[in-house]
Amino acid sequence: MSCNATNNYYSLDGTAGTKSTTFQTVIDLNITYPPLFVRIKNIENNTSIADNIIRLVKGDSLRLICESVANPPATTLWQGHHGHSNIMTAFNIQEDTQFTCEAFNIIDGMPERTNRTIHFEVLYGPVHLKLTYNILPGLSKTGTLLKDGNITVIEGSSVMLNCSDSSLPPSTYLWDDRVEGSILNIYKISRLTQTSYMCMAKNIMATTFNGNVTGRNTISLQLHVLYGPRDMSVVYNNTFAINRVLRVLEGWSFGLSCFANSQPASNISWKGFSTQGSDNNMFINNVNTGINKIVTCTRTNIMVDSLGYIISKSGKLTIELDVLYPPALQPIEKQYVVINMSLNVVCKLATFGNPPDTNFTWNKLDSNRTLVKTGETFKIDRAQLSDEGDYQCQASNTMQAIGNKTLHGSSKSQFYLDIQYAATIKHFYANTSKGRTIIIHQNQSLELICEVDGDPYPSSHILNATGEQQLELNGSIAPSKYVTAYLHRARCEYDAGMYKCATNNVHVSTLQEENLFILIQCSPTASPFAPPLTTLHMAPNDTAVLTFTIKAYPEPSITDVTWSKGVSGGWDILSNDNHYTISVSVDGLQTELIINSIQKNDFGIYRVNVSNKIGSTSEVFTLQSKAAPENPQGVNVVRSGITEIELEWIPGFNGGEQQTFIINYTDTNLEIWNAIRVPDNSTTHTLRGLKPDTTYKVKMRAENIIGNSTWTDYIEISTLAEIDDKGYVSKAIGGSIGGMTVICIIFTVMNILWRRKIKEQSTKSTCEYEDLGQDTRKKGSQTIGSYESYSFDQRQVNTYKRITELEMKEYANLPCHLNASSESQIAQVTDGDPVAHVNGSVHAAQVTAKSK
């Protein structure tokens, strides 16, 4: 050790000074003492710990060294699980704890000890931050713990949020919208309300070694706001939103979509349609005016908040469907107007369109003119032929559909304007000549052509106007402007003469006619339209007229006609005198021989010969005396009743005079004859007032003023038996019925065979045209001195309507056909007597066919 002495002095001049003196020596002192205290240091930063409390953050780690000052030196040890070391290492400190360090030495054999206990105070931040909530009006007083960070609320609700945690030191709370405090109230939540929230908890932890450490934590939540359907819209074809009214065209097909903003999504329903669409779509196919025009879309959702509160809300949107359609016109009938007259046609609407404003235009379709007239009425002041044609009225409206699409709807009604005028004949001619007189050869074919004009089409006829009755040619009548008639292999006896084309229509008061003449070169031949009556039955002192009508060209002159009377060995030529009168018509086509006051020697045969430069023909006539009638033929029972019997027969030749039929009948048990007179125009008669189940004999004869015919063979026939109320025959006539049946069968078979024979004789044979009228000359028949034309019912190629004269065109084999009505009128058909009496008048064209 050393000792140092120092003094201070001042010199005379006042200067201060110091002067030291040091004495140094070594002295060894060994002072023992126990450990008085324990010093603890942080090994990491060599910081001594003055306080016995160490504040640290939960989870920190720490290495401490324990030291002490003593003499002799002390031993320091941490007690506990740290072993015999003065260094203690603590890892991941989680909770408050304490550790003790002991220091000891031995002085004079005695242990001296001291220790120090360090307390660890664990600080921790807001690690376990939680959030509870209530939805007001709340269902929970304590609140519901937020688990997944989402809260679902219904619009209009209020929410109270409570943010909490167990930190040390306690935390302060701050919400992201700068609201301090653990509780946040959100009132009257709407879609516009903030939906994301975060609560931040924070504390300041003052640590021993690290200073102030800030602990913090956040918790977030998402607010899901549920709300009912709103902002609804109906969209057309996913393109155009509809503003209350949807304007579409009739016939369109389209889809409607209904949209709404809602959370959660809403379900859709439609009202106003009979069918439901899929999802939010409705498809309308071929819309029409009859559809329900008020359409309502309803969207509904069900909202459930996080606390299970349920509420349903709906939204509706109604639109009006305005179906646009064009106007519809009434049909316009065909229009008729007489030339030079005026015409007014009104275009009438059957229905107005939508919109109803309508424009009218008229067009003539078959001309270059398009716009003829405008307006509802079409008018022509003086109609001309050039105005005839197809016209069209078009009614249109302007339709403004959705999407600002402008469309023009229209309806058209078409009609034909017929300008009518009087019928006229433009030309009447033949295919061989344009002249008025046409000369052709026998068997030459010819076509007649008549060109007419008029509107409406004239009713035109080509007529054979040669005779007193004008005859329409087959195929000539036609509502046309070009009429033809065809003469095939024309024959002078049928087809020569005047032909006429006649036409008219409603606009002409008189028939328009034009004539031409057809002359056919041929030798004289008997006219089939006036066939000669070659057998005449006359009484003495009567006057007989023998007439022969011919067809010929050139026409014979009077010198070409010769009448002769048959005498033994030849013919005597006759000439005009008091007894005979011979005449020839002006045209040379008819000649007559008149025999005045017939005497017995006048009966016989006569011949006429007619010629021209092409050839000649002759005809033989037979003049016979009148006689008694022939008896009826084929007397037959048509029907047998209980009190009547119906008879039928075929009249025989009447002998040249009107005849009457006498029917005699008698009951076979009485043999008292009853007589019935029947006029000659009857071929059937019914005997009435007879007794039932009785057999009668029947016979007939004919009579005229000359005499009577012989009786026919009688026939037997029985009337039917009466039936009583029990259904039995009033008498035992079973055997009679059987016998009658056999008799009826026999009569029926005989009648059929007889009729077939008659038919074969009268209808199935043919005769040459040249023989027509000649084979009818038979002796022993009488007739009156006049004739009428006979009508064959079999028409040939060149035939006429309403013809009353003979109609025949096939000349090589001419059918001599008699129809069923003729059969009932013929009195007798034999080779010797072919004359027929029909209703009292004599028809002179019966022809008995030659066998070929």
Automatic annotation (TrEMBL):
Supply the Gene3D superfamilies for this chain: Immunoglobulins (2.60.40.10)
InterPro entries in the cross-refs = Cell_adhesion_signaling, FN3_dom, FN3_sf, Ig-like_dom, Ig-like_dom_sf, Ig-like_fold, Ig_I-set, Ig_sub
Question: GO molecular function terms here?
Answer: cell adhesion molecule binding
Q: Which residues cross the membrane?
A: 732-754
Q: Name one GO biological process term.
A: cell-cell adhesion
Pfam families found in the cross-reference section: fn3, I-set, Ig_3
Give the main localization category. Answer: membrane
Spell out the SMART domains in the cross-references: FN3 (SM00060), IG (SM00409), IGc2 (SM00408)
The cellular location(s) given in this protein's UniProt record come to:
Membrane
> CDD domains of this UniProt entry?
FN3 (cd00063)
**Which UniProt keywords are given for this protein, alphabetically ordered?**
Disulfide bond, Glycoprotein, Immunoglobulin domain, Membrane, Repeat, Transmembrane, Transmembrane helix
- Enumerate the spans annotated as Ig-like domain: 35-119, 137-220, 326-408, 524-624
Q: How does it sit in the membrane?
A: Single-pass type I membrane protein
Keyword Signal among record annotations:
no
- The identity of this protein, by name, is Uncharacterized protein
